[in-house]
Structure formats: C-alpha cells, structure tokens
Amino acid sequence: MITIFKKKPKTSEKNLAVFIDGPNIIRKEFEVNLDKLREDIKKRGKIKVGKVFLNQYASNKLIEAVISQGFEPSFGLGEKDAESDVDVYMAVNVMDAIQNPHINTIVLVTRDADFLPVVQRAKKVGKEVIIYGTEPGFATALKNAADEAVVING
Predict the structure, then answer these.
(1) At what angle do helices 83-99 and 116-124 cross, to 10 degrees?
(2) Contact 116, 142 (CB under 8 A)
(3) H or E, element range at 49
(4) From CA 95, how far away is CA 74, in angstroms rounded?
C-alpha cells in the first residue's frame, strides 16, 4: 500500500514586503518586541522589504534598535506628534510594493484603519495581505479586510 501526502507549499516561496507603523505600534504601552515580530513574520516567507516608519524626532536608541533587528528605518517629516505624516510615507511605500511583481505578500504592522484603502488595493491585484496589530484599538475593518490578522502580544 502506498500513501501519498500532499505537501503544503513552502512558505519560504513567498516574498514578503513588511511595513511597520512605528508611531502607532512601537509604543511603551504595547511592549512590541521587534525580534519576536520579525521571527514570526519570517515563518510566513522571505522578507524582501522590511521598513519601520518613524517620524523625524525618533530617538537614536529607537533607530539603532530598528536597524539591529534587520529593518530599515524610514522617516516621515512633519509635526512632532503627527502620526498621519508617517502614514502617508508608509502608504506610498506599500503602493510601490503592491506594484512589484516579485512581492507575493504585503505585511502591515499597524492598528490604523487609515490603511484600509491600501489593503483593498493589494487584494484587488492579487496580493496576500497579513495585518499585525495590537489591542486595544486594532481596527476591525483592517482585521476583516486582511487575509490574516494577528494580534501581537509583546
């Protein structure tokens, strides 16, 4: 008797573009561990693009932490407490990745429903979308629109 098992496609075949909304996610109250986050994301495929969006007032310590975890810091310019300025920079970068034929999966790390239009666009062109977010405040619209939603616990 011969038994044949179907193999699941290797997750490493997926090329990921990862975008982290720094002002929204990397906050003391959430205690997000970038190392654990990166390791969990890597289980889903190969990270081809990995950016953490920060405002121009980010501390050197935070920038060093981002770099040491293998992410590229990317800076939005604007008001000190204006998260929306960073959101625009991040959205533009996500749109670039959506158009990249070598990227299969878009990974957004945010809680912000402002990213719903880019999630919808990514899915419209056939990209898989995974959203990582924190509670409280993880937008239900994002969770429902994504192919997968993951709540980060530290």
Answers:
(1) 0
(2) yes
(3) strand 46-55
(4) 15
